[in-house]
Amino acid sequence: MLTYVIRRLLMAIPTLIFISLIIFLLLDLAPGDPTSQLPLTIPDEVRQQIRESLGLGQPVHIRYWKWLTQMVYYEPAYYLSQATGWFDPPEVARMLSWQTRAPVMDIILERLPQTLRVVGLAYVVGVLIALPIGIISAYRQYSVFDQAGTFVSMIGYSIPPFFSGVLMIVIFSVGMPRDSFWWFPSVYDTTLKVVDWETFWKQVRQMVLPVMVLALQTTAQISRFMRASMLDNLGQDYVRTARAKGLTESVVVMKHVLRNSMIPVVTVIALGVPAIFGGAIITEQIFKVNGIGQFLIISIQASDVPSVQTLTFIFAVLIVLFNLIADVLYGILDPRIRYD
């Protein structure tokens, strides 16, 4: 297994380099001007000087190499030096945002806890709800519970986050009186600090709506996969053999059927982690969560190419990483798989 992981990590290097090249070229060719937000009274020669100061006058391959070395060397070296003090890379070599002139990675790390708090909790809640729904729906196929689960899953599949988010706000924020237990704030207060039970309760209440929106899609997808996998295994010969040996139904379902059913579902769960960050981009914009999703939208609107390139590349790294995690978990759950 260790050899397989090392081999996959080495294979990921050229893959990520190729992805970084595609990301850089696509964003470099995309329309947009970093000086478009400046006043119209600024002369054209001054705008050109600003573009030159941002490095836009350099050839494409020079700019790509500079961005790549900043991503894979200077930024990790800077944070490593901050943590250990082993060496001190030059500050000027860091990747700066065109919009704020601050290091892009500093902005991302500042906003990341807000995103992880909402997205991480939403994904955990969605998985914890989806697995029991899928198991019970498969075991009691065509029952009332199965029909209700199918109906809710179809709703979760059909309604995009930008619609379900607004719908949640209309129902639970606009439509409810503020003193009601079912009223929840529609704007996420990122300045709130949890210091006592009152602020903790405020934090929980403001997280309810964005977590519900993101968890709905996760629950819909994973519960359907869980149900289909359970149904496929419930009809196998080893299940009839286990029942014939006198094993209790709970042991047959939860020990034998569930373990084999989790093999394809684990892949869906692992690969769904990067995907939920994509859904968080819209959700953060709706609920004003000051996370990396909102930062990406702001950067796109301001033609802040370094910030957009960095965030897009981070999403690509997450996809490659969780592909590897899914394959490793696949081998752990199924002893028949060998990565020799």
Structure description:
Helix content is 74%, strand content 0%. It starts with a helix and ends in a 7-residue tail after the last helix. Helix 1 runs antiparallel to helix 11. The protein has 340 residues and is an all-alpha fold.
List the keywords.
11 helices, mainly alpha, MetI-like fold, 74% helix, 2 domains, single chain
Question: What is the strand and helix layout of this fold?
Answer:
Layout (H helix, E strand, L loop, with lengths): L1 H28 L14 H10 L6 H25 L19 H36 L4 H15 L2 H14 L22 H38 L2 H8 L4 H39 L4 H10 L3 H29 L7
Helix pairs in contact: 1-11, 4-5, 4-7, 4-9, 5-7, 6-7, 6-9, 7-9, 9-10, 9-11, 10-11
What is the structural class?
Answer: mainly alpha
The total of helices stands at 11
- Total strand segments: 0
The CATH class of the largest domain is identified as Mainly Alpha
Contiguous low-pLDDT stretches (5 residues minimum) are none
| CATH fold node name of the largest domain | MetI-like fold
Q: What's the CATH superfamily of the largest domain, by name? A: MetI-like
Strand content: under 5%
Distance between the termini: 7 Å
| Count of discrete structural domains | 2
Taking the sheet with the most strands, its summary is:
none
Considering DSSP H and I runs of 4 or more, what fraction of the residues is helical? over 70%
Indicate the CATH architecture of the largest domain.
Orthogonal Bundle
Q: How do the SSEs run, as a string of H and E?
A: HHHHHHHHHHH
Radius of gyration based on Cα positions: 24 Å
* Average residue-wise pLDDT: 83
Shape call: globular
